[in-house]
Design brief:
alpha/beta, Rossmann fold, 2 domains, six-stranded parallel β-sheet, four-stranded parallel β-sheet, 12 helices, 12 strands
């Protein structure tokens, strides 16, 4: 039956392409694995600790399709490379593709993976609302789906979800600001502006919720002052996590609201936003003497360099090796008919079902602990951070 479904899907895809005038599907690009941190799992061990023969590998004869959103962000390159390496070590054939934030390209890529009858799909969506039809195709073909880092909304085709605790990411950012500025005890007030994630990414909604669970009381009592008045998610979300948009917003805020008063806090949900705000602040004449507290997320190489240089205060360290490992265990379980490890069965409702999830713990990284968290752990080398 599975082979028949594959033939029908392949025929349908061929007819659809012919109907479009012969235009070929968008080109895809596979991420360079050499740029990513080393994966935790490099071989599939046998029971006695030796390398298992290929025939005994759990993924032998099976394939996995991985659909990633973009290579414009360092973390997605690392995520894809880590998963690919770990799955291949277990014997799986891996199709890894990036859609460069082009929604229709991602749809086409997943359609092709379904037509090839992969044994499992891993999807980090650009816009999950655009994927419901192709996800339904995968379900009809008997292909399980694991949502990676971004929850797949409005579908019953998703089996599991692997991510970091996204509301927890927001709480860590909020708590860092609370502690660094001593908001609970200060008699001063501080200015703050918010730069939140993409409106089509459910993670961004949860992150904003986490931030505000900590900071809203200080906005209410006047300890924090947002001069633009933009504090809701709808007012602060930035489509496709665009660094350029964040920079433009910051430039406009500085010229329109902070010409006579310094901006004290940039509450940014992403390292890319922090880069854009840094550029705007430097252009506006900010120096070490009045440089604001700037937050971020992903602990990218550039962000870590900026933290060391004092141009960004903190970021959220999300060990992509760990997240990839947890996702790989999910894939391996569903491909072999077993139950994966999960630690959340209540939080992630995608409007159709509550998706069983494994949530990793986010950690704040700053000038005081980057050595321990990022270098001593082997996530980055001193050379990568220009420290050697």
């Amino acid at each position: 039956m599975k082979k028949c479904i594959a033939l029908i899907l392949a025929l349908a895809l061929t007819l659809a392409l012919a109907a479009c005038g012969g235009n070929s599907a968008p080109a895809t690009t596979e991420a360079p694995a050499a740029e990513a941190p080393a994966a935790d799992a490099t071989e599939a061990p046998a029971a006695d600790g030796t390398e298992a023969p290929a025939a005994e590998q759990p993924g032998a004869g099976k394939s996995v399709g991985i659909a990633m959103p973009t290579q414009s962000s360092e973390r997605w390159i690392n995520d894809g490379a880590n998963m690919k390496a770990q799955l291949e070590a277990l014997g799986y054939e891996v199709i890894l593709q990036y859609a460069e934030d082009d929604v229709q390209m991602q749809v086409s890529q997943i359609e092709n993976m379904v037509a090839q009858m992969v044994d499992c799909l891993v999807i980090a969506a650009i816009d999950s609302g655009a994927l419901t039809a192709v996800e339904a195709q995968a379900k009809a073909a008997g292909i399980p789906i694991v949502a990676y880092d971004r929850l797949l909304m409005d579908t019953d085709a998703v089996s599991y979800y692997a991510s970091f605790d996204n509301e927890g990411v927001g709480r860590v950012i909020g708590e860092y600001i609370e502690t660094a500025m001593d908001l609970a005890n200060t008699t001063e007030s501080y200015t703050i502006e918010f730069f939140m994630g993409s409106p089509d990414d459910n993670n961004a909604v949860l992150l904003h919720k986490g931030v505000m669970s900590v900071l809203q009381p200080y906005l209410d009592n006047g300890t924090l002052v947002c001069k633009t008045g933009r504090t809701s998610f709808e007012e602060t979300c930035i489509l496709r996590w665009s660094q350029e948009t964040a920079q433009q917003w910051c430039e406009n805020y500085l010229s329109g609201f902070y010409a006579d008063e310094d901006l004290d806090i940039v509450c940014s949900a992403f390292d890319g936003f922090a880069y854009g705000c840094r550029s705007a602040l430097e252009a506006a004449g900010y120096t070490e003497e009045n440089w604001p507290l700037i937050t971020g997320q992903d602990a990218e190489v550039m962000a870590t360099k900026n933290i060391i240089a004092g141009k960004q205060t903190m970021s959220i360290y999300k060990d992509t090796r760990l997240l990839a490992e947890k996702c790989v265990t999910m894939v391996n379980a569903v491909c072999n008919g077993t139950e994966p490890e999960i630690n959340d069965t209540t939080t992630y409702n995608n409007n159709v079902l509550v998706v069983p999830s494994y949530l990793c713990t986010p950690v704040a990284v700053d000038a005081s602990n980057y050595q321990e968290l990022l270098i001593d752990s082997g996530y980055y080398t001193a050379e990568q951070l220009d420290l050697a």
